[in-house]
Amino acid sequence: MKLVCSKCNKNYRDDYSESSSERVITSGICDDCANFFLWPNRPTLTDFLDRFDAPIVAIDSLGNVITASQRARELLQKELSDIERLQGGNVFECAFAKLPEGCGKTIHCDGCTIRNTVMDTLNTGKSHSKIPAGLSHGTSDDCVEIQLLISTEKINDVVMLRIDSIS
User: Fewer CB within 10 A of the end CB, N or C, for the chain?
Assistant: First the structure.
């Protein structure tokens, strides 16, 4: 019997005996893959995002922020604990997210380029690059329009929203 790693397909044990056949079993895992996939100190998604120079925010299928890179947290002037599990509009301090209906539920949200781009990437898997987007930042009574260039990419069920430029 041959034991083949289910992750890398490497043969990691041959066990030939009179009674065994040349059967291949692929439900095991080799030492190299076990060390990689079961590594106890594996970097977190936040650690991974911190490797990039651009501000990146990871958003789940409900529009909630999962995590953000250090550069994104610096840009937002927020700690990670202040943004995790919040709707994107609340994290970016969209003026309309503070209305009673909340982020994603006001009449303004239908035209939000940031929201529409993220949701399109979530629904279709299509990446977008350097899309011009406006953000009404502040409150509905006192807001400043911020212009952004954003890019999105879907990885599994998460959208990575990169802020390419801000003015």
Answer: C
